Amino acid sequence: MIAGVYKFFEQFFSPKATNIFPVKRVPSSIKELLAGGDIYPPIAVHDGFRGKLHYDYITCIGCAMCEKICPAKAIEMYPVVENEKKSKRIVIYLSRCTYCSECVNICPKNCLSMGKEFMLAGFDKYGPAMVVGSVERREHEVKEDSGA
Amino acid sequence: MITLILTLLMPAFVLVAGIVLGLLMKGVDRKFAAYFQSRIGPPVLQPFYDMGKLMMKQSIIPENAVTWIFKGAPVTALSSSVLLLIYIVVPYFLYLSGVNHFFLQAGDLIVILYVLAIPTVALVSGGFSSGSPYAAIGAQREVVLLMCVELPLAVTTITFATKMSAVCESCPSFSLTTIASHPVWNTMGPMGILGGMMLLLSFVFIVPAESAKIPFDQGEAETEIAEGLLAEYSGKYLAFIQMADGVKSLALVSLTVILFFPHGFTDLTGLRITGGGYDFTLAADVVLFFVKIFAVYFLLITTVRVIMARFKISQAAKILLLTITVVSLSGYMLIYLDTFISAL
Amino acid sequence: MSTRQTYPLHIGPTHPAFKEPVQFNFEIEGERVITCDIEFGYTHRAVEHIARERNFIQILYLLERICGICSVSHPMAYCLAVEQAAEIEVPPRAKYIRTIIGELERLHSHLLWTGVAAHEIGFDTLFLYTWNIREKVLDCLETITGNRINYGILTIGGVRRDITPDLYPVLQETLDYYYDVFERAREIILDNMSIQLRCKNVGILSHENALAYCAVGPTARASGVPRDVRVDYPVNAYPDIEWLKPVSPLDAGREPRGDVYDRMIVRVHEIHQSIDIINFCMENMPEGAVDVEPKATKMISTLKKVQGEGIGRYEAPRGEVSHYDILDNREGPLLMKVKAPTYSNGITWMKMFDNVEIADIPIVIASIDPCVACADRMSFVDSGGRRSIMTSADLHRLSVEKQRRIGK
Lengths: 148, 344, 408
Description:
The complex is a heterotrimer of chains A (148), B (344) and C (408). Chain A is an alpha+beta fold and 148 residues long. Chain A has a domain at 44-146: 2-Layer Sandwich (Alpha-Beta Plaits), CATH 3.30.70. Helix content of chain A is 21%, strand content 17%. Chain A has a 3-stranded antiparallel sheet with strand order 2-3-5, covered by helices on one side. In chain A, strands 1-4 form a two-stranded antiparallel sheet. The mean pLDDT of chain A is 81. Chain B contains 12 helices and 2 strands; from the N terminus they run H-H-H-H-H-H-H-H-H-H-E-E-H-H. A two-stranded antiparallel sheet of chain B has the order 1-2. By secondary structure, chain C is α+β, with helices and mostly antiparallel strands. In chain C, strand 6 (307-316) and strand 7 form a beta hairpin. In chain C, helix 4 runs antiparallel to helix 14.
């Protein structure tokens, strides 16, 4: 009649399924928590997890393949001068990224890779934490019409 | 003098203690329900935090609501729930402590039956007056439920009265004090114990039905009619309703405990705790009562609500009017037969 | 003279029972539903339009997001359609991997549905129980594909990731877990008295109506229509599985009536069927490549040379999903047409609402496992604030106009 109910009584005494990620109680300041507070560890991800993109500025040749394939149009090109030659480099807006890993597959120089980070929440979607390659961009970007 | 102090202080004390204990029980209920569902659940004090937050919030009154009923209903529900609790608990403790007070006569089962309906009726009128179709449907269902649960409850009441009149001819047979002083199990043969079990079984359904918990929460039914009766309530009025719910559940559970397990500490152990010239048995009784309340709350409300789905209102009516009434009637028959046989 | 008193009840677009916006307008007498009207169109996202601006590979990730739960079914049907048009033969190992991912998805979708259905009838313990055991298959999918829901594993001409031998133990462990837990879960879901009270003889879709209204998937099978694309039109590894047959309530020893309980039986038994299929695929996994062409750019240039059309049919957890694509020397399809299962099943609601109570409304709505976002095909934008209802003649006229516009 009330079949299987013993299972619920079993659950009453067995360890709970809840993972108290990120914290057990509401912290006094969420900003402090995000800045590096004491976070209860989430369930570990496996190898091959498609997390935050990592970009190697040095090996990139600016071929724009990734920009063309990106389904979410999350990749933007900007002009640089490398080895006294005009070239292009990329930034990836993680707030648009769908983590499909097509850019990683298509890159001829293997300068993109997917990490295991997934705790990417932030307050500024154009800040350095949410735009991969923005630090390099600030260093190397040249204005296109400066040479003209 | 002591009578006057008792008369003045007792209701105020029960009001505060009832609300606090009712909310605490809600918290424990949520925690245990979470354990059944393999969750950690909210902190036990969560209902208190909720109340604090609801009290701070703005109460929105719908444009087409009948304002005075809408506002009055939660307060009526809360005050009548507290009244119910006073009626049930105070005579019991007066009896246990041996104080002679006119409140001893207060716990009358017939009066309790009537007072039990007031919070529901208040909420129903609040629901009807709120002008929301969901609330109107919820109110209709609540009325149906109220009418259906009266019958088995009345049968149980009559059973106890019959039994009491047989056990103690000079006592008022509908009084809770009589029931508390003559625990039903003590004077019954095997057939009577079986009958008592059946009455207890009917309470497994009556208590959730009276306190509007799953499987009998048709009036609220979150996924069907979006909290029904409470659909338009917010802010402090919702807080009042929540408190009323806590107090009413507490009152119902206390009623169950007093009807079926009224044994005091002395009845069970035959001991009296004394020290320094004072008698601490009453304190032991209070602790024992709390333990019993929590156990019955856990068994009749938490456990039932986690292992069942919500009934449809037609099914609920059928179950209460047919199945549960038959169960309580056969309990009545058995207990009556038992009394009859033992009288021979 | 009739003294019937009815009143209108509007449920939706937002309501605790719905996971997606859709509106139902009921006429109620007491607690009984007299008439019902459904309004779609609150969550139209113009997926087909967006797809026309993207290339073949990019569309895959767009289609994954048509439905969060069928996130492999839509790309699968699309891949089958494009492969049919371009006459690409998928390697056998890729076929098996596709089957495994598809069945894992069915497993988690049905577990999710059971939880949702339990929540609709107020049985939250069962809801949390099924969602708890569903975590295992999601973890397995995360290990195999790299993500929990939007797997991103399919590509035209194969799959993007191989299930390497070191992943076999993970998969085997998942299967063992479900074999272990299935019997008890079945008992809790199907033998519980209060669930039977709420689900039996509710929302009946008769055999004739299921045929007449073209019900698909578990909804049709529960009404006794043995309709399953995996059997009728087998793709991937399904042709190799000889014992595969459509699940029917008869498997649980119950004559199909087409009520909610039958749909529950079908879904619960399909969970077991899925485990068996995955087990079969693991045992018979062929060796070889998993992809015709690993480089996406080369694949796009191959497809750019193709002129033709293709239809892909796949049995999603909710029923048949079919995609129709026209390839015409472009980087993406010239035209794409998506037919999601709810598009067929949503209409059967009208018949299911015969003779039900208000309390049955949520479970009847949930019983076809609706995916409203999949089914919304157009939204009517009216700047004047007036409401308009499109008749079938209007829709036909608009379709013809659009076809002419594209065909130019």
